Structure formats: C-alpha cells, structure tokens
Amino acid sequence: MSQDAEAPVRVPQGSAGEVFRAFLKLGLTSFGGPIAHLGYFRDELVTRRGWLSDSAYADLVALCQFLPGPASSQVGFALGMMRAGWAGAIAAFVAFTLPSALILLVFALSAAAIAGPVGTGTLNGLKIVAVAIIAQAVWGMARNLCPDRERASIALLAVVVMAFVPGAFGMVAAIGLGALAGLALGRGTVDALGGTVAMPVSRAVALGALVAFFVLLLVLPLIAGQAQTLAVIDSFYRAGALVFGGGHVVLPLLQAEVVQPGWVSADDFLAGYGAAQAVPGPLFTFAAYLGAVLGPAPNGVVGAALALGAIFMPGFLLLVGVLPFWDRFRRMASAQSLMQGANAAVVGILGAALYSPVFISAVGDLRDFALALGCFVLLMAWKAPPWVVVIVAAVGGVSLALL
C-alpha cells in the first residue's frame, strides 16, 4: 500500500478461477461470523496456500476492521484483488457471498408457504434465537470496545439518543457524537507497522472510488422518492455505509430502513435474521432475504439482487478508496481516537436494538424468555456454534407451539 503515486502496482500471481474455487470452498464452510471468517481465511490462504505472509495479512485485516462495512468480505475482496487483480476481487466476492445468499433467498421465497404449528413454531424459534445472538454480540463488543468508563458512557449516550431520536437519523447522530467524544478523549495510538500489501489500485482510481462513495451517499436520498427501486437501493446503501464495529450492527440499521417504513414486518425481519445465523458466509447476505420479502416491488429475485449489491457497495468503494493511503492514515492517532468513540457508540446502538425491535418482538411470555435464555447460555457458557443454537431454537419453538 505505497504512498508513492508512481510506485509500481503488484503483478497478480494467480487467476480468477483459482480465486473463485478457493472462496467458494470458504463460502460453503465458513460458519461463525466475521471473526471466525478471518480465521478461516488465514488458515486457507496464508497457511495452506501461501498467498501472502502473516504480517501482510494482519495489516490487511487491520485496515478492513477500521473501515465501515463487512470486514470479512472486504478482506476477501482485497485478497482476491491481490491474487488476480480486479477479476479476482469480483470472483472472491461472488464465490464467498453466493452460497448463503441463495440459501436465504430460497428461505424467503418459501417462508410464506410455512403454516401450522411446526412452521409457525420454527419461525418463532428463529425470532427468539436472534435475542440470544444479539445479546452475545452486545456483551462481546462492550468488553472489547468499551473497556473504560468513558467509552461505556459514550455507549450509554448512544442509547439515550436512540430513545429520543429513533431511526437512521438517530443512529447517525449517535455515531457522530460518539466520534467527537472519542476525539476529545484522545486515546488513539499509532499502529505498529507490519507487512505492507501492494494492490493494483492507483491514486486516481482510489480517489474516484471515494468520490463515488460520498456522491451516492448524498444523492441517493434526494432521488429515492422518484421510484421504489431507487428507494430500495438508497436504504440498503445507507445501511452498508454506516456499519461500524461488526456485522451484527447491520441489524438496527436495516430495521430502521425496512421495518419502520412498513416494507417488511417485524416478525419476518427477525425470522430472517435468525435464519441468517445458520448459514455460512457473510452476515450481510441477510439483505438478500430482506430484498426478496419486501412488501412493495421490487422484491423476489430482483429485490434480493438489488439489496445485496447496494449493501456491499459502500464497503468496497471505501476499501478501494483508502488502499493507496492506508500507511499514512494509520499513523494518525486522531483517526484512531475518532474510531474508538464511534465504535463505543455502536455498542449502545446495538444494545438499544436488543430491546427494540428484537426482544419485544420475539419474547411474548416467560416460556419464550426461557428459550432465549437457554440459547444465550449455549452460546456464552457452552461455546456452541451459532448454527447449532439456531437448530435448538427452532426445535424449541416447535415444541412450544405444539404445547
């Protein structure tokens, strides 16, 4: 990631087909969320295939965890680019994303036909497991991102903001206030430099990507009222652009974009989110499910494709936009301070979402609460994989329905 605009770019050493095969394997087997995905990537591409060194991989992971967007998908996109250029980047994205997107699309298209106690119980179990999974995410993120009383207070401030200013505007306000508070605290440090990774991205291409990111973010809301298709693209693009701190944060963002306008019911939303925990690949493929079940057209396959493309696009534009400047940017302690505050605010936003819509929509009585608590214990105490807990919740939901 050279700072020199005239530095030669790295010559790709593989083919798009090779990248596609490697990432299709990962897309079919990578369960457990973004942190687990990064472990799978390292084992397959660093240790087994030797595509890059450990230090270079760590440098790339640090960049993608710093940026908004789906960290594991951004790392995969960059690894594909490093290995086989732009064709490799696209091959990595498609292969890693397609399996889970197709599974969730099939679930979305068949969910309406589910009836009877078995069907409704399964859907109720999927809603309940979302309570446990989001609670686990809030707990883990709070420990990592709010390690002191100042950042814990930033998280609390975000909850207060969400209580009085719900929706997407409240989230933007909470993240902005958190970033300013983090800058005022000044706890950022300069990362120790590891191995660098050269990418076939010039400064001109990078600047073009950054311009495209901000133009779309500003212009899409202005033209969204002209057509429902533009409104869908705007909603999912904005959700993808504001994901700081982990994939689970996309839940409150998407809830504000599709549930509050009435495009998707709260029950369908949580059922799909629960199902997304049981499939491999990136959590962002939840967008494919939502796009398929949207009330107004476009929906179905077209809606799934639009939602999926729109939610991933901002993260990839940002990644391409910062690649040539990363070495310089990560030497700025102020940038680290901003992100610390923003990430603390994100913990509060996700905590608010744990209450509404997740808990109040899924837990109707003490039996539901007992099932949610049991799933949480399986995740936290027994360290059960999320897909196993999803199965347990579905069986539990059916049992409660039959009772």
Write the layout of secondary structure elements.
Blueprint: H1 16-29, H2 34-48, H3 54-66, H4 71-111, H5 116-145, H6 149-164, H7 168-185, H8 203-223, H9 228-241, H10 250-259, H11 266-276, H12 286-293, H13 300-322, H14 326-329, H15 333-362, H16 366-380, H17 386-402
Helix pairs in contact: 1-4, 2-4, 3-4, 4-12, 4-13, 5-11, 5-15, 5-16, 5-17, 6-7, 6-15, 7-15, 8-9, 8-13, 9-10, 9-13, 11-12, 12-13, 16-17
Could you explain the architecture of this structure?
It is built from 17 helices and no strands. It is mainly α. It has one domain (16-402).
Task: Please outline what is shown here.
With 403 residues, this protein is mainly alpha-helical. It has 17 helices and no strands. It has helices at 16-29, 34-48, 54-66, 71-111, 116-145, 149-164, 168-185, 203-223, 228-241, 250-259, 266-276, 286-293, 300-322, 326-329, 333-362, 366-380, 386-402.
